[in-house]
Specification:
Rossmann fold; 300 residues; 7-stranded parallel beta sheet; globular; alpha/beta; 38% helix; 15 strands
Amino acid sequence: MVTGITGLLGRYLLGTCDKSVEIHGISRGGWPQSLSDKCQNHEVDLTDLNAVERILNQVKPDVIVHAAAEGRVDIVQANPDEYRPLNVLASENLAILAVRQGIQYVFISSNAVFGGDGSCYSDNAILDPVNQYGILKAEAEKAVLHSNPNALVIRPLLMYGWPMPEQRLNPVVGWVNHLRKGERISVVDDVWSEPLAAWDCARAIWRGLEVGASGPINVSGGMRMSLYEFARLTSSVFNLNSNLVFPISSESLPGVAPRPKDTTFDLVRLTTELGIEPDDPARGLLRLRETESSSQIANT
């Protein structure tokens, strides 16, 4: 069972799973037509504990991958208490129910649990978030692992990929859309991360379940670059006009929640325990370009 199935990660979980796996998707509604023949769909409010228990009793899943959350950082920053029931309490409740019913549980966290101070974060590094979204994710991580020590916690870092129709865009797709229209884009040049192809995050989840991994695992594309450098690379791979990509300072964006400035991940568990060597951004973007013409949720 996958919550947040209509999100970016949900798409690639469907595209990378073994064909023998039966997936039940959970969402609050708005199912893309392309999803209908890929999984069984259920509309459930994850903050309604009774509704969650009913669907678990109905489906009886072997695994729960909990990817649903309010991920718009600036929205959460403005009113964190509004999103605590979904981002924290629902995550904890699912962890508790998974223990009771003997279900493997995967919680999708975020690099936002770290402050991005330029150090290389290990899987077990101390959590030090700098915004409300990160604070809620850190709170959820702790609650999940306290309630369910065997849970697997996956921390993706700046995922990109093709979203499902009419779903929220990630930066790469947004940049490509603007540049194809000949529109200028301004991208911060003082925030560094390691962009991650969504299919590699999905592969990490399936592999983690296969080997029975638990605890936190950092997942990234393994190559540090600024967002501006990543946008320039995107324009180059997609054969678009790089002269339309302009650098700006994050300080020039008033009213925006603080972001981790410089996040680098230690990928020891990802590469050794899970045996995954992620696509670096250049290879990942090339693969993304090559799969654009597919109208289906294709294996990547």
